[in-house]
Every structure is written in C-alpha cells, then in structure tokens.
Specification:
Organism: Sinorhizobium kostiense
InterPro entries: Glyco_trans_1 (IPR001296), Glyco_trans_4-like_N (IPR028098), Glycosyltransferase_grp1 (IPR050194)
CATH topology of the largest domain: Rossmann fold
Helix content: 40-55%
Protein name: Colanic acid/amylovoran biosynthesis glycosyltransferase
Radius of gyration: 22 Å
Order of helices and strands: EHEHEHHHEHEHHEHEEHEHEHEHEEHHH
EC number: 2.4.-.-
CATH class of the largest domain: Alpha Beta
Number of helices: 16
Strand content: 15-25%
Number of domains: 2
Distance between the termini: 15 Å
GO molecular function: glycosyltransferase activity
Structural class: alpha/beta
Strand order of the largest sheet: 3-2-1-4-5-6-7
Length: 393
C-alpha cells in the first residue's frame, strides 16, 4: 500500500515525529511518497542517514521546477497568491493520485489537499493530523473556518490531544471525522534510570526551542524566587536549544541574579542531548499560550524525559494534562504562574524519595499511552482500512 505524505519543508529537525511516523510505516511494509513545501538543505536533518536518505529519494516539492517562484509569490496579495499556489499544486496531483491514502501533517497542509479534492482533481482519501500551531493560531484569530473545505472533503482529522478534538468539532468538523491519535516515542531507545539528588545539587534541564510558547522565561522567574526564598538549596539549570528569545532570556537570568546557576548550551546533537538528560534529575517545560495563539500539542520532549526517569515540571496547558497527572506522574502549575512553579521546584528539591515513586508512575504512563510502536500499529490499521475501501471502490 502506498501512502502520500503532504508536509511543510522537509526534512525538519524540529519535526522528528513526522519522520518517525514515516519510518514506522516503512517498517510495516508501506511505500511512502512525500510532497513538501520545499526540500531542506539543513545538514542537521541527517540527510545521509536512514530513514531520511530513503525518504528523500521519494520526495518532491509541490511545485517541482517552479519552486523557484515561491519567494515571488509570497509578495502577492493573499487571494492572488492562493489562486496561483493552488494552480501550481496541480503539478503534484498525479504523484498523490498514485497513492492509496494521503496523510497531511498540520491542518494547513490538509486544507491544501482538500482544495484539490474540492476541484475533483485529488482522488485518495485525506487523513490530516493537527499538532498545535494549526489549531491555536486560527482559534486565536477567530479563523477556524479556514478548514471548512477540509472538514467537508477530508476523510479523517486526527488530533494529538483531546482539547484539539473538541475544538475542531466546535468549529464545525463532523464528530465522526475527528479522533485523537497521540504522537509517541521509541521506548526501546530510552532506558529508565532514576537517580537521587539527596546530598548533591539538583540538576534541572530544559530541551526546547527558545520561543515564547516554551515558557522558559517563567522557569527562570521561578528559580529567581526559589533562590531568594531558599538560598541554601543547591541547584543548577541547563538550557539546551536556541531561538529568538535566547539573548533576552540570558539577560533575564542575569537580572534575577541567577546567571551563575544557569547554563545556556545552544543547540546540540541528539547524542549529546541524551548525555545531558542522563546527568539531570528534573525536566522543566512550563509551556504557555503565545501572543499569536500558538500552543503545544503534547510535547514529545516531556514524554522522553518521563520515560528516562526524570521528574517533569510543566504547566496546565493545552494537552499536557493528558500526559502529566499533577502530583502523580509529574508536576503542573498554571500558565505563567511562576510562584506556583517555584513551589513545585522547592518540593522536588527537598523530596527526592517522593519523586522516585512519581518517576516510576511517569514511565508507566508513557508505556501505556505513548508507545510509538503501538501507536504506529494503530495508525497503519487506520490507513489500511481507508486504502482497502478505496481499492474496493
């Protein structure tokens, strides 16, 4: 069975879940075609390694040779841009029509495919996966109506959390066309290992892009409060990742008087990140809704930290409470509430034994609900059902 994936720029280091899902289908005997909005030349995307090397052989830009016109089209008025873009999209219809099912990652790519379906040019059923930005930003702008054609012509809309499912149904998506399908992690590659910080400094870590919705600002503010409230506590905070807010976050740490206890490492290779995680005790990701409405789905980084045995501290944000039960599999604070966050961190620092039991429950939670192998089996079954129905028709 052949599956056509419709994605943005490909491959992207920040969207490893897309490549992971494709690899899962390859391992189950599916053939993959990829139609993307630009082929990345980013060397950190491991272009020469598997499965990316195999996938790139079956990857085509939506517009083929006409992709060079993309920067010019971006300067056109929106209506003219959409009209010309859709016309150029038709150059990839033959490739997609050779597939049994089309899978679109992110709502805007599903809507793009649905326009071709509306024009009766695209034949396979469309399965669209919504991740976060594609729900939060249009919801904030009052523009979920942009998915009207997708709700009508798409076959199934999968959301990575239940909040998004309810949001899409509320925006007009038929209930029978919307379901939750979590993203997962490869548990075989993440051994569980818990280590106590009794008698040593608590090692805190964040691994994320330094953008607004990751909430690193509030982690720093919480630690500033903790340092003032309990100066005797020994801790260090390591931040891995880069992004537009790095300089302002470094300035904030200095202003809070904790710069000597905070290390910004920038972006690191995955192997190095794994090493830092093994040397850490608690993972901090107090995500927030960004000013433009951008939100998390359920961050894969939290799943990986929980699987590895770290105590996780996050926020009551988007789908995160579907992963973390406060006080049972981790700790949550309200968005932007750095005082409560400081309380959670203070508790963790003083109660490593209590955190060990929470850490074991966290691993069980991920094994039960976010195991990539099981989720890939379920996804493959969904696609097989639609593909067989299309062939029978």
């Amino acid at each position: 069975m052949r599956i056509g994936f419709v994605v943005g720029q490909f491959p992207q280091l920040s969207e490893t879940f897309v490549v992971g899902q494709m690899a899962g289908l390859l391992n189950r005997g599916f053939e993959i075609e990829v139609v993307c909005n630009g082929i990345s030349d980013n060397h950190t995307a491991h272009r020469g390694q598997e499965p990316v090397a195999t996938l790139l052989k079956r990857t085509r830009d939506w517009w083929g040779a006409a992709a060079r016109a993309r920067p010019t089209l971006r300067r056109l008025p929106p209506k003219l841009h959409d009209k010309l873009s859709t016309a150029l999209d038709l150059t990839s219809v033959a490739r997609l029509n050779g597939c049994d099912v089309v899978v679109a990652h992110f709502g805007h790519n599903g809507a793009r495919a649905a326009r071709l379906k509306k024009w009766k040019r695209l034949k396979p059923p469309i399965v669209t996966i919504f991740h976060g930005y594609d729900v939060g930003v249009p919801m904030h702008a009052g523009d979920l109506g942009r998915y009207r054609d997708l709700f009508r012509y798409g076959t199934l809309n999968l959301t990575v959390n239940d909040l998004f499912r309810r949001t899409l149904v509320g925006a007009g998506a038929p209930k029978e066309k919307v379901a939750v399908h979590h993203m997962g992690i490869d548990l075989e590659k993440i051994p569980y290992s818990w280590q106590s910080w009794r008698g040593t400094a608590l090692q805190l870590i964040s691994v994320c892009r330094l953008a607004e919705k990751k909430g690193v600002e509030f982690a720093l503010r919480a630690l500033g409060q903790l340092a003032a409230r309990a100066p005797e506590l020994a801790w260090h905070y390591t931040i891995i990742g880069d992004g537009p807010l790095r300089k302002s976050l470094e300035t904030l740490a200095a202003g809070l008087g904790i710069a000597g206890r905070v290390t910004f490492l920038g972006s690191l290779a995955h192997k190095e990140v794994k090493g830092w995680l093994r040397r850490s005790h608690a993972f901090v990701l107090p995500s927030v809704t960004a000013r433009n409405g951008d939100v998390e789905g359920i961050p894969v980084a939290l799943m990986e930290a929980m699987a590895a045995g770290l105590t996780v501290v996050s926020s009551d944000h988007s789908g995160i409470p579907e992963l973390i039960d406060d006080g049972e599999t981790g700790f949550l604070a309200p968005e932007r509430d750095f005082e409560t966050l400081a309380n959670r961190l203070h508790f963790i620092a003083e109660h490593p034994e209590r955190c060990e039991a929470i850490s074991r429950e966290a691993r069980k939670k991920v094994e039960t609900e976010f195991d990539m192998e099981r989720l890939d089996d379920e996804f493959a079954a969904i696609l097989s059902q639609f593909g067989k129905a299309r062939r029978a028709a």
